[in-house]
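Hi all, posting the design record for the shared folder.

TITLE: backbone redesign
STEP: 1 of 1
STRUCTURE INPUT:
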């Protein structure tokens, strides 16, 4: 079976042509595609904001909370590994977890000395994170509308997120604006 399909352009590099279908109709009518030029994988058709609200409902988050012993420990172990990797480039300062969910990565980053903030589209998960870290530390909603100060963050982490963003290019522009300008390689990175 031919897995190539020519019908869309890449949301990151704007390449047009044969886009590889990795998983067809994985979530309803949505498939996971891969750009042959930049290798980014993304959901298509792109999710609408109302679809994202439905996906990241209370039920989605409550499943992980209800399986706290296994789910959160698995996520925290993954995030400790990620933070160990990022420490080579940035090991202190203001950290934004873009797509923070209930705050598992933030918990681990705070333990090692980061000043943590989060942005979360799902209202239910954002409220859990707000209860852990405070209203002023969590932005609930689309990243393009966040009120974080420009040049404020030393590092922004976007883990398991890109395929869920409605407009990745716009999101990257916002992330670029809120990252500190740096003249060396010790900060200002996107993971």
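Okay, here is what came back for every position:
SEQUENCE:
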């Amino acid at each position: 079976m031919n897995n190539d399909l020519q019908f869309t352009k890449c949301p990151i590099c704007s390449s047009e042509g044969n886009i590889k279908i990795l998983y067809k109709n994985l979530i309803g009518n949505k498939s996971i595609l891969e750009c042959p030029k930049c290798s980014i994988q993304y959901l298509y058709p792109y999710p609408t904001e109302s679809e994202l609200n439905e996906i990241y409902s209370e039920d989605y988050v409550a499943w992980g909370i209800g399986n706290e012993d296994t789910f959160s420990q698995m996520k925290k172990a993954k995030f400790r590994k990620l933070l160990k990797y990022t420490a080579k480039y940035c090991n202190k300062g203001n950290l934004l977890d873009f797509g923070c969910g209930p705050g598992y990565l933030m918990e681990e980053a705070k333990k090692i000395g980061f000043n943590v903030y989060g942005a979360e589209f799902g209202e239910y998960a954002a409220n859990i994170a707000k209860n852990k870290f405070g209203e002023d530390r969590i932005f609930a909603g689309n990243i393009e509308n966040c009120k974080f100060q420009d040049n404020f963050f030393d590092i922004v982490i976007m883990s398991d997120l890109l395929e869920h963003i409605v407009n990745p290019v716009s999101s990257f522009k916002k992330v670029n604006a809120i990252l500190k300008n740096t003249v060396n390689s010790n900060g200002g990175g996107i993971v």
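COMMENT: DSSP finds six helices and nine strands in the chain.
Let me know if anyone wants the other runs.
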